[in-house]
Amino acid sequence: MSAALINDICAWILLALAITLAENESSSLATLWVVLSSITFVLICIYVVRPAILWMISSTPEGETISEYYICLILTGVMISGFITDAIGTHSVFGAFVFGLIIPNGPLGVTLIEKLEDFVSGLLLPIFFAMSGLKTDIGAINGATTWLVLILVIIIGFAGKVVGTLLASMLYEMPLLEGITLGFLMNSKGLVEMIVLNVGRDQKVLDDESFAMMVIVAVIMTAIIIPFVTAIYKPEKRFLPYTRRTIQRSKPDSEFRILACIHTPRNVPTIINLLEASHPDKRSPMCVYVVHLVELTGRASAMLIVHNTRKSGHPALNRTQAQSDHIINAFENYEQNATGVSVQPLTAISPYSTMHVDICSLAEDKRVALIILPFHKQQTVDGGMEATNPAFRMVNQNVLASAPCTVGILVDRGLSGSTRLSSNQATHHVAVLYFGGPDDREALSYAWRMSGHPAINLTVMRFIPGEDAKALENPGVLTVETENLKEKQLDEDYVNEFRIQTAHNSSVLYNEIVVNNGEETVTAIRSMDNHHDLFIVGRGQGMLSPLTAGLTDWSECPELGAIGDLLASSDFAATVSVLVLQQYVGLDPDGEELGTPDSPAQPEEPFSTVQMTNRPTRQPVFSA
């Protein structure tokens, strides 16, 4: 983005020089006067006008909108700037462009865009492009030689930027496909290019033939970019090779890494209690990356901020600074009072439509084993569940589809005890509902880790099909009973290992319940919902069992799975929080990393944080 901005600035400077030389061919003194006047205008804008605008912003109380008087004054300044540069001898658009550059990034820019964007983008911009099309006379391009020159210009112009960008990317050791993709993107033409061409035509710098050729070049080069980029760049398939993508594969004596996502301060207490229940200690410490998710609005670029310091000039963060401070303080206080826990607070500012990319990229780069997402519904005063923001659900669904590790969706109904979990008195009763499959094994693995905490009582309820249970026939879908004996054997082995390892732990209770259908399953779960503080269940993705048959017919939230949706419904378990886990699907049934023979998994390397400001690509880049 910075390179594109510099490119546009250079284009305007060259255009101003071209116009000046075209209008003053016979007088070098006049040309010098125009150049010096333009430079003086730019300096005045930077050192006089910009400080005045900064004063306007500073005089506005925090949290209030910019005064309408200031807005009108700034819009008047745009017209005055255009008039000055037109009188100097360059072009009125050059003055408006420079005035736009000096507007500081913040609430003023957001306010100007909110007031002008609909009018400019919806009315003026289409009219401008339509007028550009009417001015383009393709018939002015005469002769086969001219068309060959046109094709040559397209090829050379396109290849030049691709090769140049690729060489720069190779210098910085970027992957080859990313360098080629960036080269394609640098060829895109937009509004600035069309303005330059129109100004050049109006000032007689370009004749009709040259103008038509350049317009065709811009259209063709821009049109072929999206298909090429879509075909060659697949960011969701590019994962770093690390093995601890699941809780089940995390070693008991290694660091356990969690990425906890926060939308509002209301999510904080339950997530902190869940983290404490995860049993961090000196033998198996826990590293928690806490990400405050903030929607990107206005013209500012997306950012991922590491809170080593509290400085940030991003307008989206400024509007939610109080929330971010509250969240950061809560987790810093938790870190100070906990043992074996390190917390790194971050803020991700991006549109909800691409927020999952930031979450998954961060999880991949930090090599976390678990992503915790708040459920998009919150409990009301009367015990019901109401949606807070539909976009939260979209973020959760996108993360489930593309996460590089295990994902947990937390249905928050409160998980705070009267005393801290670090005391010897058990304050939380956790239950695992086990039906079988990778997701349920992941749920059992997480609960197994919790069982080592002296303040946790764990109950594992394994549901076993009875003699009257009917096997479901559905080719291509895993069936717990008959269709996948290997999956069933994995369940048996893991449950047996769990029972052996926890046989002497009095706080762990294992029960087997025989049921034949979904109705009996619901009845069995209802009989235990008031005796626990937290249910941990697997999402059951790809599994088909007669014990849950029919439960998905009335499902409101399929992303939770059949059992998770049942537990999260408004008329069920009104006081019990629910954690629904989906195991990383990139592991085969033996738990080995899936990959091609050409790209075997490599050993883990320590992650180093890169300190930068903005990130136009998928790679998460951090700013202090």
Automatic annotation (TrEMBL):
Segments forming domain Cation/H(+) antiporter C-terminal: 429-586
Annotated signal sequence range: 1-22
PANTHER family reported for this sequence: CATION/H + ANTIPORTER (PTHR32468), CATION_H(+) ANTIPORTER 15 (PTHR32468:SF26)
Locations listed in the record: Membrane
Cation/H(+) antiporter central domain mapped to chain residues: 286-423
Membrane-related topology note: Multi-pass membrane protein
Record domain Cation/H+ exchanger transmembrane: where: 2-231
Gene3D superfamilies from the UniProt entry: 1.20.1530.20, 3.40.50.12370
Region (Disordered): 589-624
Transmembrane segments: 32-57, 69-88, 94-113, 120-141, 147-168, 211-233
Name assigned to this protein: Cation/H+ exchanger domain-containing protein
Bias (Polar residues) ranges: 608-624
Any matching Pfam family: Na_H_Exchanger
